[in-house]
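seq/struct pair 1
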Amino acid sequence: MKSKQQKIAEVDESKKLLKDAGSLVFVDFSKTSTKFIDQLKKLLGDNGVFKIIKKRLLNLVLKDKNIPLDAKALGLQVGTVFGKGDVSQTAGLVWRFFKGKEKELPEFKMDLTCLPRLFLTPFK
């Protein structure tokens, strides 16, 4: 369990990432191995940062930027991609990553009407 100072540092770091971000993409990473998460981070490179942060702390970050989203209501294991570009560019990278992993991640369902693993939030 993280100390209060560690949580404050994590919120501050996430606020800085959000300040520089052009978009947010929320990814359900349940049943996703560390190997795939590391691959996603590498794929994003300079285009964004994938960060796993507790939903309660994420809500503090979003509230600071007046983004009306309750991360707790997502009810998933949510990782956040702080994208440098617009939402279509960031979501496209994440979508193509998971599209290429369909055989290894069979629980990932690709449905454009529902987007069960991707939640997109454009802002600015």
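seq/struct pair 2
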Amino acid sequence: MKLKMDEIETPIGTLRVAALEDVLCAVGFADHWASLAAALHQRFGEVRLERQANPGGATSRLAAYFAGDLSALDDLRVDAGGTAFQRKVWAALRTIPPGRTASYSDVAKAIGSRTAVRAVGAANGSNPISIVVPCHRVIGADGRLCGYGGGIERKRWLLQHERAVVASCRIESAIHANPEMQEAAQSPSVWLVRRGIDEGDRT
């Protein structure tokens, strides 16, 4: 089986992507690729990776995501394989919006299998399409960051990245919705004068 492959440098390491007929089937960190390669071999048999720029649009979309466009990955076509149960879990993960998290129990309830929390955890851990299928948004019921295939520090970075961008967008939306805040953001000196505040009076 021949798969199209590309790599992208990110703030948290090199990501490798693989696609079959422009449909994404694997995304993982290069330093953890061995386990993904084994999963691809189990799924497809002998696999040959052929370098091609931006297969399925994945590389450019990932670059946009890391640059702050958190919606860039939303409509990427994916085919992760897996069992029927795993596919249900992975589909549920894509409904968790950036800036939010869910517990394993939340995901189990969402797919109609309340008692299958451990199985959800196993499916989450075997997700072959990191970041695009956002398994990093699933955390422990007590808020702990549980295991992540790329390492806990990467999971922490991804969650902080998403929360920071979402928070920034909310602030920007508030400014655009309020003419006075917009003026303050664009011309703080003019705004202060109109408010009767000298710039030297600010603490």
